[in-house]
Amino acid sequence: MIFNELYGAYYNAVTKILRAAMEHPITEQQIRNIVREQAFSESILSIEPALLSRCWPLLRPDRTAALKQIPDRPITILEKRWLKAILLDPRMRLFECEISGLEEVEPLFLPEDIRVFDQYADGDPYQDESYIKHFRLVLDAVKKHIPLAIDVKNRDGVRTHMKVMPEYLEYSEKDDKFRLVTSGCHYGRVINLAKILEVKLLKLEEKIAEWEAKKESGKSENLYAAEQKNQSLVFELFDERDALERALLHFAHFEKEAERLDKRHYRIKLKYNKEDEAELVIRVLSFGPFLRVVEPEIFVELLRKKLMQQYVLDQNSDYFAENQ
Hints:
Blueprint: H1 9-23, H2 28-38, H3 44-52, H4 77-87, H5 129-144, E1 148-153, E2 159-172, E3 177-183, E4 190-192, E5 196-201, H6 204-211, H7 215-229, E6 231-238, H8 243-250, E7 255-260, E8 265-272, H9 277-285, E9 291-295, H10 297-322
Antiparallel strand pairs: 1-2, 1-5, 2-3, 3-4, 6-8, 6-9, 7-8
Helix pairs in contact: 1-2, 2-3, 9-10
């Protein structure tokens, strides 16, 4: 870990719990809410039992704080160096993120120190001034829900003009690209930001005149977008050979909820984008007998199909090896 644990999410969550407990006895539900807000969904598996059992002697039996004063924690030199390193990421320029007081701080690492595996090499041009300008304008339109007039280069290299309502931006780690998900245009819903040649905000009267008429037709598109983005997977995990720790690491970037069934069994529900389904199948299979998918059945069928394909490949490999 880069940060000392005293400055991490667990301590921030517990600090907020103790602040609340200094004012009044805190309930189990309040503890869960704070943990979900300040830490990770699976953190409830460790923080709540430790506090309520007084394994961490921070709460009195009446669930008020055992401390008289919550100490402040200043930012460390290590944290400053880490922040300086993150600010050197070319993607940070897209968000106009400025943090003062780091001018004389040496970065913990440099962008050229990072090697990313299993990622396409033709990522977006984050250093390009036109790309940065387009990104910031699109992001502003998404936040304010303002329609856009966009010119893009299609697959055939032809310039295409469209008017769209921006819904949200998404980032593909594998492709290293940002995409804009839209509604209100028959050309398509997803626009790669690197394909944008020109973009501008539409005027308010254009927004009222065009998009009010498209509101009803856009509902189906929005439902489709939500359906694609909010696929759910539920699996049960047997914690042997650090399976739980590996699972939480493998699925760290997915929204998820974890529940302890008994001492060594856990149920985990995560949400994923339909576009990530093929990669998710491979990740699930990597856990072997320690992970069992409960639902949906369609995902179980994908696992069976993948295993059958692998079995056929193995059989063919054995056959060719024997007959050479």
